[in-house]
Amino acid sequence: MTDQLLGMQTTDTEAPGSQHRPSPAPHVVDPTLPARLARRVRAAGDAPRFDCLTPFTGGVVATLPVSTVADVEQAYDAARVAQARWAARSVADRAKILLRYHDLVLDHQGELLDLIQLESGKARRHAFEEVLDVAGVSRHYARKAPDYLRPRRHLGAIPLLTQSTELHQPRGVVGVVGPWNYPLSMSITDALPALIAGNAVVLRPDEKASLTALRAVELLDQAGLPRDILQVVLGPGRTIGEAVLDRADYVMYTGSTATGRKVAERAASRLVGASLELGGKNAMYVADDASLRHAAESAVRSCFSSAGQLCISIERLILHERIADDFLKHFLTRVRKMTLGAELDWGVDMGSLISQAQLDRVTQHVEDARAKGATVLAGGHARPELGPYFYEPTVLEGITQAMDCRMNETFGPVVSIYRVSSDEEAITLANDTNYGLNASVWSKDTRRGRHIASQLRCGTVNVNEGYIAAWGSNGSPMGGMGESGLGRRHGAEGILKYTESQNISVQHGTPFKVPPGVPEKVWARSMATGMRVMKGFRLS
Ligand code: NAD
């Protein structure tokens, strides 16, 4: 499939004096795929087109149409009509589609991995995390949504005489705007619980994620989702992204904290709910009793997955001083052996950054730290001979508050080392950030690990793992504290946010009416006695 689709050639020749591999020849995408995918975009037949580029070479792999604000309006109109029919179907019926989707995503993983790699430039092993994520989220909500969404009976105002039920009504049409870094995961997983909760969705994936997102949508069509329920528009964030969110009955946004703030303001001004999944400056603490080999191996994945362009990846490594040197021996040996390359295969450890803007940001953070006195323990250079945006996995030490990478998210393959002498110092340092997305704690004593974890101001904390344990635990909520976001994905919160709770209470008899001939004072006293009796029972 790979060669057919992309006409891609790779070579296994090692670059002289390095573990790194050269880039493939420019890709040639089979023109039938983008042409087919373009039909799933709400845009006019003669709409202007934009280039889908591959970071592996910087070359154009396809063109897709750009939607207009009028297209967004039409998408909402069609979605609203379809949503009424969709919401009338049972949750169990909607769930069957997600179970079929689970299988289709796994069956088509080779093709999806090619597209993810091609659009994002990441290594195949990191692209595979996205396939697992989508399958996991689909399965979780297919199995659990009927329970999350079922009507719940509550104790009524007057026991037995008042029957109160909580319903979860769909909000209507949810607007989803996603980032580029996880073209499959971040384009589709937030739409899935919204759909199963009975909403329609208007999806605007990032332009750099469009091919993968459209293929993911096609597979949902194949799984049996009515077409109009999920509308796709493409175009720049500031125009089309904004138009999508400005018409939504609920806003689901993933991106940087700076943009998230503006998105939240716009949603608040319309009194519309919003879930925001934003940036992070995540820390891993390795305590003095940690398994150092395992911690070092996990740190490599946690710092450099998707070349560090992962919101939950680790940018700060906090080491207990008693084990810091031993840990670094394992870690740096492994980092220096990492292979970089543009293969559509499993052979390389890390791929490319996505764009010149990302390369500029990473270079600026490293050069700023270097100029202000930081030591570069590994990496620290771009690798243009591999592709236009490759950058080495980089480890810095001697970071001060004056350096840009101390408090700001780099969102690249750059991690800084900090040494501490106690758990308390590690906790203070890990919490010294405005963000609060993800953290990792390493200790063989899991009670100690849990205790440290509970004191970290982060939405997810992994004990003896970097990020996958929490991310892959789909029944538990995931999201950011502080400036890392609002709301949660996964678990009950990840689906109930797409609903509005409704309280339907049915009254039998007329207990709230003062009976004829009874003085109101007497009636009030008997009500108060009833309240005191109820206090003795754990009923409400
Ligand atoms: P960004 O905020 O610049 O853009 C994100 C998306 O929003 C893009 O598709 C962009 O086109 C669009 N956009 C821009 N302005 C908009 C507007 N006014 N209205 C609507 N949409 C708009 O972020 P980025 O730099 O492209 O992405 C990287 C950031 O995303 C990092 O900070 C990363 O941590 C964060 N991120 C967070 C998560 C998470 O789950 N917490 C996941 C992935 C990425």
TrEMBL record:
Catalytic activity from the UniProt record: succinate semialdehyde + NADP(+) + H2O = succinate + NADPH + 2 H(+)
Domain Aldehyde dehydrogenase: 48-503
Top-level enzyme category: oxidoreductase
Pfam families: Aldedh (PF00171)
Alphabetically ordered keywords of this record: NADP, Oxidoreductase
InterPro entries cross-referenced by the UniProt entry: Ald_DH/histidinol_DH, Ald_DH_C, Ald_DH_CS_GLU, Ald_DH_N, Aldehyde_DH_dom
Region of interest (Disordered), residue spans: 1-30
UniProt-listed Enzyme Commission number(s): 1.2.1.79
Compositionally biased intervals (Polar residues): 1-13
Active site: E277
A GO term for molecular function: succinate-semialdehyde dehydrogenase (NADP+) activity
UniProt-listed PANTHER family: ALDEHYDE DEHYDROGENASE-RELATED
Family: Belongs to the aldehyde dehydrogenase family.
Name the UniProt record assigns to this protein: succinate-semialdehyde dehydrogenase (NADP(+))
Organism: Flexivirga oryzae
